[in-house]
Amino acid sequence: RSLSLTDVLIAAGEVDAAEDMCAAGLALSRDTGSLDDLAGILNLMTVLDLAAGRIEDAAAHLREALQVAFRTGDSNEVINSLDGCGLLCAATGRPAEAVTVWAAHTALLRHQDSDWPLDVRRREGPLRQARQALRPDQTRAAEERGTAMSMETAAEYALLLTDPGPP
To answer: pLDDT class for 167, splitting at 50, 70, 90?
Structure first.
C-alpha cells in the first residue's frame, strides 16, 4: 500500500506526505524483509531525492533498487530503475548517459506494461535538455547504444552510473 499511496501523493504534488509515506514503506519493507516491495519503494525514494536535490541519496537508493530488482528478477522494477537512472544522469550533467539509459528503458518497456503518464511527464523536460546538449550524431549513437541493450546489460550499465567510486 505504501507504494501506491506514495505514487498518488507524488502525483498530487504532496511531496512532504509522499516522503513520509515512502520512508514508512521503506522501513516496513526492510523490517519484514519484503524484497518484492523494497525495489519499488527505493525507486520512488530516488524520485523524491532527486526532486529535493539529494543527488548522493538518490544514487544510493537507485543502486540498491537495481540490485534488489535484479536479484529478485523483478523486470518491472529494473525498468523503473532505468527511468530513475536517466533522471539521475540528467541531474548530474551526463546527457549522453541519460539518453542511452532512457533509450534502453523505452526499448525494454515495449515488452512490459505501458509507461505511466506521470513518469512520461517527469522525464520529458530532462530528456529534451539532454538531447539538446548533444550533437545529432551523439544523440543518435546514445539512442542506438541504449536500444541495443538487453535488460541485464542495461542494469549493469545503470549500476556503473550509480557507483559511488571513481569514474
So the answer is: low
Alpha carbon distances (Å) from 37 to 1, 25, 40, 140? 10, 8, 5, 35
CA distance 33 to 102: 30
Nearest to 102 by CA among 63, 149, 57, 49: 149
Q: What are the pLDDT digits (tens) for 46-73?
A: 999 999 999 999 999 999 999 999 999 9
Q: What angle do CA 64, 66, 72 make, to 5 degrees?
A: 100
Which amino acid is located at 17 in the chain? A
